[in-house]
Amino acid sequence: MTLLARTFQGFNQWVLREVSEQCFEPITPRPQALSPLFKLDDEFLHIGEQWPFLLHFLYDAKAHWIEQHAQPLISGIWLEDCQGKEIALEASALYVDGESLLIVHEIERKYGETAYRLQSSRDHLLVEEELEREVARRTRQIIAREEQISLCLLAAAGCRDEETGAHIRRIGLYSAVMAEALGWGIDQVDHIRMAAPMHDIGKIGIPDYILQKPGALENDERSLMETHAAIGASMLSDTGIEMMDMARDIAQCHHERWDGSGYPKGLRGEEIPIAARITAIVDIYDALVHKRVYKPAYSEEKTYDIMSSMSGSHLDPRLFELFQQNLAQIQAIRQQVQD
Q1: What is the pLDDT of residue 153?
Q2: Fewest C-beta atoms under 10 Å: which of 24, 26, 118, 320?
Q3: Whole-prediction pTM value?
């Protein structure tokens, strides 16, 4: 063991050999820093309840020695009071050349470095948490402002045709269901929930006699009605707000058709913004299942048949399939938000 003793000399480490249960014989000199703490009894160290942490570690060390592991088992850092001063210690257990060895380390420097790293990590986490809370708070403020803008615009437009407040609310909720089903992030889901209700905001520029006409529109009346898409897009343009940009696209393009036969630009397929394609589907659904001045409320079955015939021509077929997959949730919203 002479080589072992020389190896650990000067490292503030005390190597002891187990001679019996909880009794150890030193094989290297006891470091000066440990002398006041560990008293020898007839040149042996008896570990008892005066060192509860070390005593507990011996249970794990015993199993380690029985299995004759040469790799050290580390106790972790603990503190002992020594004449009013805390000393940071760490113990290791290993099995070498048929001997069960216990090594006690005085690690004040290591403990200080570890404590500093832990405190630094804690401070860093606290800063990160505070930043996250601030970002979340500001995000909530932005969403609230955007929602207020949406509500103000809708209030300014008023319900001048057959569309009710419940209808525009349902459109937002239906659209959010579709966006979630597509895997959109929460911000984008919130955006379409607020933007989709503004799809017909441009009707503020259409005369009442056209909006409230109970029968079919004449050709010139229909041409004037179709200008509401461009009017809405103009109202919602150049805000620099992402949600309002989505609302602009929806207002301008929710009457475009998958096959290119819609208005105002005759866009086709994926040229049409996806938010507008989603809004078109849910707007048609809600209009069909509710009474309008020009039609009665249709049953779910009739509505489904009509919309199925529109898939691939008027409606995006992939999104219509997604709509069908989430129809139960959409029907639940319809029941909860009634005119």
Answers
A1: 62
A2: 118
A3: 0.58
